[in-house]
Amino acid sequence: MGIIEEISDEIFKNVNKEGVHVIHDLFGEIDIQLILSELAEIESLYTEKFVEDKLFRKRELHEGRKGDACMVTLSKPTTSPFLNLDNFPALETCLEIYEQSVSKLLNEDMKDSKVLMNWQQYFDGDNSLPMHVDVELIDGEWGKYEISFEEGIIPRYVMVLVTENLNDGNGLMVEIDGEISEVKLHKGDLVLFDNTKMLHGVPEGTKFKRTMLGFRSFETKPLYFKKERFENSVPYKNGNVEGFIEELSTEKAIEKLKENGWYYE
Question: What global pTM score does this model have?
Answer without folding.
Answer: 0.91
